[in-house]
Every structure is written in structure tokens, then in C-alpha cells.
Target: MIP18 family-like domain-containing protein
Amino acid sequence: FVPAPLQNTAQLNTRQTFLQTQPPQKSTHPPPALKATQPDTTPSAKHSYPTDWQSQILSALSVIIDPDLETDIVTLGFVQNLSIDPSTNIISLDLELTTPACPVKDIFIQQCQDIINNIQWTSGCKVTLTSRPNVAPSGSPLGMSQIGAVIAVSSCKGGVGKSTTAVNLAFALQSQGASVGIFDADVYGPSLPTMVTPEDDTVRFIGRQIAPLKRGNVSLMSFGYVNEGSAVMRGPMVTQLLDQFLSLTHWGPLDYLILDMPPGTGDIQLTLSQKLNITAAVIVTTPQELSFVDVERGVEMFDTVGVPCVAVVENMAYFENQVGGNTAALKDVDGLKAKFMEALEADGLLVDGAKAGDVAEELIKIVLQQQEKNIAETTTEKIRIFGQGHKRRLSEQWGIEHTYSVPLLGRIAENGDSGTPFIVDNPTSPQADIYRELAQSVVSEVAKFKFGKNKYSRPSVSYDDDNRVIRVFDNDEESVISPADLRRGCRCAACVEEMTGRQILDPASISESVKPLEMSPTGNYALSVDWSDGHRSLYPYRQVRAMIEEKQAGKEGAKEMVQA
Ligand SMILES: Nc1ncnc2c1ncn2[C@@H]1O[C@H](COP(=O)(O)OP(=O)(O)OP(=O)(O)O)[C@@H](O)[C@H]1O
Model:
């Protein structure tokens, strides 16, 4: 353990002075290891630290805010087993996070160390990372009782790269410190056995349950491991079998179980989503125009069972092409020099006294400089295969903020057939970064969903026909917005230009008398409105909130102007 460096010399001097004048005293009756739960009742005079040391530490640490949960780490109960070594004044604590894959865990440790080290009477700090034990929602199938979150990876069509995404997401989560399992729920064409070769493919039993196979720390289960070839079954049989198979698998404690769903949005998928207590879904698509409809269908399916879609992956979105100068590096410098010399001498180009070797040397320098310039000018061009994706629409209409575009890449396809996931084989590639970012957004959104305060609370929205206003009841506050204002704020493809975000809808074309015929929550983030002018709009709650705030700010501003 090395204490974090102090931030300035003034603090360093203060601490040094303090330690010099008051060396930590050894009590004749050393107190037991102090825990936050065991208040120190010994008189303060015997110690070189204050009697209220625990509250001082906790209050100092309460400035650290979890960015996802928007609450301080003390209130969240992250600080556990707080103790002090009375002989050294070194503070120890556990940081019990909601997930070991927490994206800001290193920042938290650093912040804790900096803050505690800057308290005058401390002489160091030891932070141990832990995470909360996983507890599955009640009613979860037998083998899944210790699974923290079930993440469905889903697509409307087959062959868009759902299994590839599921596998790389799982291994990305594992590389970030989480314990992960993958369940391949495709009974017709299981792909996990091709994509991930387990270390040992013998299927074993633990009591009456099947032990998942393993690759590194990732647990794996697929019909393909227990049954050669694909099954021929009808819908109800499939869901029953999947349900049994999943429960019969002895997953043990897992932070995340990645569920590679069968493609489609039919009964099998709906029943699975209902039965398996899915925490969140990731939708995989290709960015064709048609596929946006697929995404909508996917979001709607998960919506009917209350599962939020946290990210969309546009797979095979583009391919990368190197453009620019000649990047081939000059390998045979001596050979080229010899050729230059030969040419210089043969053509009689040498002026008086010049040596062919020196001139050739100069020429080589010019060639190498040019080569460097060429390489610097080389850029990678992204060629979009199916057109520009739908990031803007996904965010503006559905409130889905996490959209990732994965290129069509030979190595991704090769790894799909090789039994080793792409991210394991190519951890430093830019595409591995994309999968890691996807994993981080899943971790953050799941944490918000499970532990956040208001993030996923849906405001209640109703239309008050008497007063011709839409009433929004949000976080114990009611606000109103006029139907025409909300209608004019529609960001759908017909109202806003997809690429530039420019409004196509002429606000003046919307009558003041327009009103909602039906309003219903869609997905966990958006409100769907059927308007009296025949239009249908989707508004992320974020947008509704922003529009109300804007209107209120406008009104306040106008009031102030009148008063002035
Ligand atoms: N980004 C990519 N670049 C190149 N090849 C890819 C990419 N993503 C997936 N593939 C390849 O496309 C094929 C289909 O991928 P995958 O099996 O993941 O799709 P799927 O949607 O799960 O299909 P199914 O529903 O039929 O199981 C595989 O051969 C895979 O290796």
C-alpha cells in the first residue's frame, strides 16, 4: 500500500509538523480494530486522532458522488468496515460497489485516498474494493438465484450479429472485473459452441443441476454443448425447455448473465422475456432503413414486459478503407542507395567533385521524409454500407443514448468461427474498444435501473381537455405544457431532417387546436402520442422535461422583463 501523493506542500508540511509534534501514541490498552458499527468510547486523550474520527471521515467522503446514481457514496452505503489502526492512524475501509465492473472504481479509490490523506490527523488510507452480493428478484428460476442482472441481447432478424455481440459483450464485461455467464437461448441454431470453445467440453452435473462449461472465468451454456445439431420443436415446447434448461444450469453467483435470445419478436421471445426476469436489453441491428422498424418492434416487445432497452448496436455498419499516401515502408534502404548511385554515375549527373554516395544519401533522406509525410496523411475512411445509422433518431425519439456502430470486419467473422471471441484475440483493437464501451454503458444503465433514484421513474402524463393543457406529474411536481407546443417539438423523421437535425415541420402549420387522442408510455424512456391531426410522435421523457423547463424559463424571463 502506497498512500496517494499529497496535493500541495502546505498540506504536506502540516501533516509532517503534526506527526513530528504528536507521534502516534501506543495505548497501554490498545482498542480493538475499530469498525463503523463499533463506536470508539475510549477517551480521546489517549489517541492521536479525534474521538469522532468516524464521522469526520464519513462526512469528508460524502463529497464523492456516484455519477450514475447521482448520490454520494456514503449515503449509498458504499463505505463499509471503516477502521483505524491506532498505532499508525492509517484508515482502512471497504468500498462496496454495486458491481465489480463499476466504470469509475479507480477514480473512487483515488478520491477516497486523496480526501483521507488530506485530513490532518490521518497518516494513510487503505481502500479495498468489494461489491454487493448479487440477489436475483424473487421468483427467479432455481439456478439463477444469485445472478445480479440478466441482459438480453436481441434482434428482430437472424444473421445481424446478435451472437457475436452477446459473446464480445460478455468477455468485455469479464475483462472489466465482472463475473459473467452466457446462455445461448437459440435452440434451432445454437452458435455459442462455434463461437466459444470451452476449456473442457465435458458436461458435468452438480447434484441434479448441470454445471456450465467455462472459458476463462466466463460460464457458458448452450443446447449445442449438450445436444449435437439443432432441435426441431414448436414454440411452447421451446420456451418450456429453455426455461427448464436455464433453471437447471448451476450458474452460481454471477454479476451478469448474457442471454443470447433467439432472433425475432414472436411468442418465444416474449415468453422468455417475461419468465426470466430480464433486467435490460441490448438490441442488435444493421443500419438499413428497414432495420429501424426492427428496433422499434424490439423496444416495443421489451416494453410490454417492462424491460428497458439500454443500448442499440448497429452491426456491420461500415467498413474501413485506408486512403491517402503510399504507406508501404521502405525496407531495402541500402539497395535503393546502390540504385541511386548507379543511375547517378551512369547518367553523368554528378557535378564537379560530388560523390555519388553522398548524393544518394541525400536522396534517400528525401525519400524517407516523403514516406513519413505519406504515412501521416493516410486516413481511414468509413464506408457506410447500408446508409447512415439512426443514432439521432434513437436518442431523439426513444431516449436511447447508447448506440454503437461496429464495422464489418474480416477478423470479427474469422473469430466467430474460431472458438475464440474477437475481443479476447484482439484486445487492443479499436473495435474491442467499442465492445468495452458497450459493456460500460450496460453496467451504468443497469446500476441506474437497479439502484438509481429517479432515473427511470416515468412521469405520469394526462390531457386536461377543459383547460386544454397536458399535465405532467414528475417527481412530486406538476407542470403543464400546451398540446400545440408539444406537437411542434416532435423530432420524428417526418418533422426533423435526419442527418442535420434541422426542423422540417413548419411550426405555423400546427393548429393551436391540435390535441392528443391517446398518450401512453413506450419503452422506459419515451412517451407515445397519437395526435388529432393524424400524426404519431414519440418523445423521450428527457425531452418533455426539457421542453417544460424551457417554457417555464421563458415565462420567468418574460415576468422579470415586465417587472423591470
Ligand atoms: N461486425 C462483423 N463483421 C464481420 N462479420 C460479422 C460481424 N458480426 C457478425 N459477423 C458474422 O456474421 C455471421 C452472423 O453473425 P451472428 O451469428 O452473430 O448473427 P446472429 O444475429 O446471432 O445470427 P443467428 O440469429 O442466425 O444466430 C457470423 O458468421 C459472424 O461471424
Remarks:
- The chain has four domains: 9-131, 142-319+385-450, 325-377, 460-563.
- The two ends are 61 Å apart (CA to CA).
